[in-house]
Give the backbone structure.
Amino acid sequence: MPGGVVGRGARAPRPTRYAPRTVAYWVRRFEAEGFSGLVDGDRPGCPKRLNGSQLEDIAIVLRKDTSNVGLEGSWDGKALSTCIQQQWGVSLGVRQCQRLFRQLGFRLCKPRPKIAQADSERQEQYKKFHHLQKDSSVDLWALGEVRFEQHGTRCRMWVPAETKDPFALHHPTRKSVGYFGAVRLWDG
């Protein structure tokens, strides 16, 4: 910065650079129309394929399960494209549908797995006794069967912004191997 000192850790602002042709267009428009010539007008482009009411309907449909519209799995670009084609007869590409998810306030995330038939009562009971594991006066053992199941990989899915903790239900009938054992929790 000429003539000045930039403090420690501070950066001098970088000048914004525009293409010379862009600046020439601005000058020409200013000379012809004044400041009103510098205001951007409507930009030409392809007409929208979906109108406002259709977008509102899509936002409502996306907050429901895919099975409500006769599809399987979770919402992704391909599923949305198929749904729009079936419901409204409009053909949109997968990328356009992904942009539409963002436009409607959805985010792309990887859900945590959750067994479809998990017993939430037993899970809460385990959490209540978890503090006893650190107590050395209690000889606490864990006894039970362990089963390793084969699951498909988790995929990313589009979820509404108001959904804080998405999960994908796994089918409970996958290939598995079972073991039975016991372990003392204090020392393993």
Summary: The longest strand covers residues 141-149. The chain has a mean pLDDT of 81. The chain has five helices and six strands.
